[in-house]
Write a structure and sequence with these properties.
With 158 residues, this protein is an alpha+beta fold. The protein contains six helices and four strands, in the order ααβααβααββ. α2 packs across α5.
Length: 158
């Protein structure tokens, strides 16, 4: 009888341990939001035109950076705010995937166009420094939330 009780307690302990769940740190992202591709392409063009006008190199599009930018834009939409949450992990993953030595990003929301986002970034010393930095590749993700507001993530690397 004592052995059956001991077996039951161990079985109960195992059940309780397995049935416990953990809570997510961030909001759950159900599905990806559709990209505003025309706005993305326009912003990439504007940034590159600006760089070239200053004598800097043209930035090549990076599919790897685009994937990470999209994930971060979805994350910001789910949270309802712009942020650089998890940037270190994002930068590390990009660096490993493409052998990048440096990664940076600009984020924005609630601007009505690519030109407006660019102008606001240009007016900010930190954002401007990123856009004019010594990078070789970039990608920008632009998506609308359910209220139609645009969210922007642009990643840069060299």
């Amino acid at each position: 009888m004592k052995m059956i009780f001991h077996y039951f307690v161990m079985l109960l302990f195992a059940f309780v341990t397995v049935s416990c769940s953990t809570e997510s740190i961030g909001p759950a992202i159900g599905s990806e939001v559709e990209n505003a591709v025309e706005v993305e392409q326009e912003l990439l063009g504007i940034v590159n035109e600006h760089r070239v006008s200053l004598g800097y190199n043209y930035l090549d599009f990076s599919l790897v950076a685009y994937e990470y930018a999209n994930k971060h834009t979805d994350y910001m939409i789910a949270k309802g705010t712009i942020n650089h949450d998890n940037f270190s992990a994002r930068a590390s993953d990009i660096s490993q995937a493409v052998n990048a030595s440096y990664v940076s990003e600009n984020v924005a929301k609630d601007y009505d166009s690519a030109l407006e986002a660019f102008q606001k970034w240009l007016a900010s010393a930190d954002h401007r420094k990123t856009m004019e930095g010594e990078f070789t590749h970039t990608a920008v993700s632009v998506k609308r939330n359910t209220d139609g507001k645009l969210y922007f993530t642009q990643l840069f690397y060299r």
